[in-house]
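Request: Not sure, any thoughts?
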Amino acid sequence: MDDLGALAAEVLSAEVWDFISGGSGSERTLDANRTALDRVAVSTRVLTGIQQSSTAAKLVRTAAALPLAVAPMAYQRLLHPEGEVAAARAAAAAGVPFAVSTISSLPIEEIAEAGAALWFQLYWLRDRGRVVDLVQRAEQAGCEALMVTVDVPVMARRLRDLRNEFTLPAWIDAAHLESDDRTGAHVTAEHGSAVAEHTRSAFDPTLSWADLDWLREQTRLPVVVKGVLDPRDAVRAARAGAEAVVVSNHGGRQLDGVLPSITALTGVVEAVDGQCQVLMDSGIRSGVDILRALALGADGVLVGRPVLWGLAAGGTDGVGQVFALLRSELEEALLLAGCPDVTAVRALLRTGVSATAADG
């Protein structure tokens, strides 16, 4: 996977590479995500007689060939001319769900033609009418889940983008936003990142639990709440009707210094106690990382930056290599750990770091 990342870095401009690779602040959380994952160790079971292990899973209501989905990521045409369509085509071939971002560079209707099982990721816009419009478009396009990102009341200070004064090229838009909301990310900001200023003007920072309740009444799709670290929030999301939560620190791109996602995972799993599924993202780079997350109680993971590396390196074929590598590594990890399928991983002994919140 690191080889694909190196190849992507060679073909992308320095500014685009920084945009997809960087984190917020001093990037301590970005680095901590990997460090914490590498601290998780699992036991193995022996003499099981297993010759082959199944990687199949069910994520929310979607059957998947692997216990992973593609994380929602913005502006993928920055990486390849076919952008989200190329990545979704690879997801369809691999049999994994593809989450379409609100700020995708291609419309969901066009992405749906690639044939992947789609989820739609929702950022909360200031105009509720537009929120309803997006939900209806997602339903009409055949999406199987609605993923609400809750950890971006504002975009955090991402120093690489600020220093680069990063702006989108004129030929890339946020395809799901109205025309008067699309242009801000193309205009050089007075102080730093045009993308940050654009999202600040388009997104509503007042999103609350009451809004989540309202959203549940607007859609027939299962709702996934993405961006949870505190077990108390996970329990509240489950009680509000969420079918899954995603333990996530936004890949180290929001508040710098928060818990690594893998560290927060166990506390969330214990707190929800089966009331909803628990997914996890931020730092997944290998099949062993997926095994680690499953061992700590996750039902599956979201994979982000490696998909972008594959997209930059080779379009659909490059993303396909990412999925093939993850599948091969996970199959081997399951077999070596003595697990016949992904559900058996939870029974493995493991060591690592975890965190739980005080009652309240």
Notes: The two ends are 41 Å apart (CA to CA). The CA atoms of residues 26 and 140 lie 42 Å apart.
